[in-house]
Specification:
single chain; mainly beta; ten-stranded antiparallel beta sheet; 10 strands
């Protein structure tokens, strides 16, 4: 069982603005979001397949609790309510499909993968993928 637990600091981010654009976020809000999310702090607690993930930025803090393999309520990167289901893709990587509760929009997902002392987080909206790489603190 991989150990995702710990605190994580972002080292690199690619395509975050492009992801927000694909989600339909306007230019002004994208600028604020990109600046605020440039240095997120992530705390992960794990007990087997049970996860707590807290992501803090200067503008917003999000917290999710979930069990891999069980549907739960979450919000997409742009704040829309969705039903999410995380599953293991491999020994060190989980994939989470998000289904909007109301309305329509791009198909969204996230993945989290451990690669040594790095946590690789991806967010996707249709064909646009944002990759963020974190180092363990």
């Amino acid at each position: 069982m991989p150990n995702f637990a710990g605190t994580w600091k972002m080292k690199k981010s690619e395509n975050f603005d492009e992801l927000l654009k694909a989600l339909g976020v306007n230019t002004m809000l994208r600028k604020v979001a990109v600046a605020a999310a440039s240095n997120p702090h992530v705390e992960i607690r794990q007990d087997g397949d049970k996860f707590y993930i807290k992501t803090s930025t200067t503008v917003r803090t999000t917290e999710i609790n979930f069990h891999v393999g069980e549907e739960y309520d979450e919000e997409t990167v742009d704040g829309r309510k969705c039903k999410s289901l995380a599953t293991w893709m491999s020994e060190n990587k989980m994939y989470c499909k998000q289904t909007l509760v109301d309305g329509s929009g791009p198909k969204t997902f996230w993945t989290r993968e451990l690669n040594g002392d790095e946590l690789i987080l991806t967010f996707g909206a249709d064909d646009v993928v944002c990759t963020r790489i974190y180092g363990r603190e």
